[in-house]
Amino acid sequence: MDPRCIPERYFNLGVGEVVVHRNAGGNVRHALRDIGIVEELFHVAELAIVHHTDCGTLAFTEDQVRGGVKARVAREHWADVDRITFGANADLVESVKGDVAWVRAHPLISDRLKQGCQGFVFDIKTGEIEKVNV
Amino acid sequence: MDPRCIPERYFNLGVGEVVVHRNAGGNVRHALRDIGIVEELFHVAELAIVHHTDCGTLAFTEDQVRGGVKARVAREHWADVDRITFGANADLVESVKGDVAWVRAHPLISDRLKQGCQGFVFDIKTGEIEKVNV
């Protein structure tokens, strides 16, 4: 979601060449619905999971975001806040590895897409993208 | 998520000027976690919900996607498939209106962002963006 990122540019792709899901942290666990749709509508054989350096999710803790939201909502909604996992992150490479492992183990994702799933880190400063060995 | 869309271009914005969440159908209900994070990390006063013409979600039914996924997974996982709402859509303007109404009624979203929430339709063919009156 970071304003400094344009996913189409990661792999020198142009308009029309890639389906893009974007969320905070680039967390693939929140894209299962989208993956299901894409697998049904199109013939998709590659899934690139890209997290980027200086990601906002590395800058907060779960408690910090939960506390911030709770501070401005009525107490009756605090249980709803506690049910949200905001996805604070401690290690970029480990989070990419975890996402790829999640895809490869997920029973609702096709074997084809599992085999075509790779993980990457995009470096905000250099503009380079690096494959993560999983 | 559509390959023909680059959200940064909708409002003639450049890199660094907008935080972007993208999902199938542009459905804001799946962005609550992301909105919570953005509200905690940044001072955000505007939320633009944009759905686009010729969207894939207008082209399928829930039963179709569920059936397609079930056809390739073991029966023991069918209940998991049934728990996913893929977000088939029948009317673009109504879906934008519904998303804006959802934001404005949501107890975990700030009053500032509710007031700054607007809905739009992006026309894939003309490249024009049109505000939806809600």
Automatic annotation (TrEMBL), chains A, B:
Matching InterPro entries: Carbonic_anhydrase, Carbonic_anhydrase_sf
The record's free-text note on cofactor binding: Binds 1 zinc ion per subunit.
Transmembrane segments: none
Top-level enzyme category: lyase
Catalysed reactions, as listed in the record: hydrogencarbonate + H(+) = CO2 + H2O
Annotated Zn(2+) binding sites: 2, 52, 55
Cofactor: Zn(2+)
E.C. code: 4.2.1.1
GO molecular function: carbonate dehydratase activity; zinc ion binding
Pfam families per record: Pro_CA
Keywords for this protein: Lyase, Metal-binding, Zinc
Family: Belongs to the beta-class carbonic anhydrase family.
Function: Reversible hydration of carbon dioxide.
Protein name: Carbonic anhydrase
